[in-house]
Amino acid sequence: MVPRSGPPRPAREPLPHDRRHVRPTSGPVSPMTMITPPSDIDAQALATYLAARVDGAGPAVSLTRLGGGQSNPTYFLDTGSRHLVLRKRPAGTLLPSAHAVDREYRVQAALADTGVAVPRMVHFCEDPAVIGTQFYVMERVDGRVLHDNALPDIPIGDRAAYFEALARMLAAIHAVDVAAVGLGDYGRSGGFAARQIARWTKQWQLSAAAADPAMERLIDWLPRNLPEDDRTTLVHGDFRLGNVMFHPTEPRIVAVLDWELSTLGHPLADLAHSCIYTWMMRPEEYGRGLAGLDRAALGLPEMDAFCRAYFEASGQAGPLTRFHLVLALFRNAVIFEGIAARARQGNAASDDAAEVGRLAPALAARGVALIEEATA
Fold first, then answer.
1. What pLDDT is attached to residue 316?
2. Residue 81 burial (CB count, 10 A)
3. How far apart are CA 20 and CA 353, in angstroms?
């Protein structure tokens, strides 16, 4: 197989797996998150390969693996004259659609000349013989990844501006002309919500340890309340504060990260996902949400303000519907239950897998509460 500068172009939706309980970082990180040197890559083989294909790559490279349990292992890569980032598939036997570095590379390369901030793609290698797996290389971006939605390190008066920037960037993703940038076959057009319900219902049935009346209520309610609106845009799949990089000192997004779950889908699915992680999770829960905090005192916006900023930037019709919030809660409840199931089997991807898994019934209950609010 001959390595290429671009990945294959499969028209498929990405397969979900354990990636949601990790916090990927592509910019400067503290030394505590670095592992040097990595033992899973033959640095000399990589250097030889890159020297023939990447401008400025010399006869030797320096690799520093970023810790934190990224689904797709990530490294700082220095070639002497260039400071890059390498992301690769994990080693071992994997499901075909999981850990899709080809999709990550393809979508970010396609977005290079749009209003979406992405790192510049440098090279994609589909030949696993080089370092053991497929990988790609991109330019390194300097900035900050802010994982705590309360923004404790940001002055109170500046915090709302970070969420406004987040809303505008999400609108920019959904505004991309997918046909014009070569992503018209990146997923299926229409029917996204129905496919999501079917997928996550099946996944729940495969992973659930016990019956959960709240989950059964969601499984019954969702297909009976499908909205007529069936528009299709590019969707990120996991758009939230911790998956973007901000300028070192300004409330300006310099890169959107972690495109592994991107596909074509309904834009409100992305918006709802952002909202539940921010306003329907508590500070002590995964995602470090804002539920229960005195947001006004902390200079943090309400969900309505975030959605209003999104709709103003996108020009799309609102509002964010109850259906999409319930679907987002259901989807993530199933994902968390899958994480718990793997922890029970001894196959957890991180030490906090069991704790994360316990969120599944909590999210299902929040979905039921939304349904009951509508009928009260």
1. 84
2. 9
3. 10
Provide CB contacts within 8 A for 110, sequence distance 6+: 181, 182, 183
Model confidence over 103-140: pLDDT tens digits?
A: 999 999 999 999 999 999 999 999 999 999 999 999 99
83-96 residue pLDDT tens: 999 999 877 665 55
Tell me what pLDDT residue 342 has: 72
Angle at the Cα of 363 (from 357 to 365), degrees rounded to 5? 125
Beta strand segments in 14-97, E: 34-35, 57-66, 74-80, 83-88
Could you tell me the two tokens for 303?
């969900």
pLDDT digits (tens, 9 = 90+) for 211-259: 899 999 999 999 999 999 999 999 999 999 999 999 999 999 999 999 9
pTM to 2 decimals?
0.87
pLDDT per residue as tens digits for the range 359-372: 999 999 999 999 99
The pLDDT confidence band at residue 339, using thresholds 50, 70 and 90, is confident
CA–CA separation, 122 and 6 (whole Å)? 9
What residues pair up with 65 in beta bridges, in sequence order?
Answer: 35, 75
Q: Could you identify the residue written with the tokens 């009976």?
A: 224
Nearest CA among 106, 2, 107, 118 for reference residue 52:
2
* Cα–Cα dist 108/87, whole Å: 13
Q: How far, in Å, are 40, 200, 288, 293 from residue 149 at the CA level?
A: 34, 27, 6, 11
With contact defined as beta carbons under 8 Å apart, do 1 and 126 qualify?
A: yes
SS3 at position 117: coil
pLDDT tens digits, one per residue of 316-334 = 878 999 999 999 999 999 9
CB 330, CB 222: distance < 8 Å: yes
> What is the distance between the alpha carbons of residues 74 and 89, in angstroms, rounded to a whole number?
9
Pairwise CA distance, residues 14 & 265, whole Å: 12
**Exposed/middle/buried for 328, CB within 10 Å: 0-12, 13-18, 19+?**
buried
Distance CA 170, CA 168 (A): 5
Q: Which domains are present in the chain?
A: 23-139 (3.30.200.20), 156-375 (3.90.1200.10)
Report the Cα 238 to chain-centroid distance in Å.
Answer: 3
Task: Give strand ranges (E) for 33-82.
Answer: 34-35, 57-66, 74-80
